Amino acid sequence: MECRVTEVIRPKDLDGNITATRLVMGQVVGVHIRRDLLRDGIYDTAAARPILRGGGLGDYFEILREGHFFMPRPPAD
Known about the structure:
Layout: E1 2-9, E2 23-30, E3 38-39, E4 42-43, H1 45-48, E5 51-55, E6 59-62
Antiparallel strand pairs: 1-2, 3-4, 5-6
């Protein structure tokens, strides 16, 4: 996803002190998808083999097909 920064927030701790971290918010202005990863018009996430940050000093995880499950959305009000 191609994004443009809309806001940079300096979070505060429980005592109201500004922390050394930053929360960057952005707006998606473009999406780039390999066409071979589209299955019946739906992005096949597992086929792309993305990784994500898992916390710790250097922990990452790969999204695998074996981890897929379905969770239906609740009905709209």
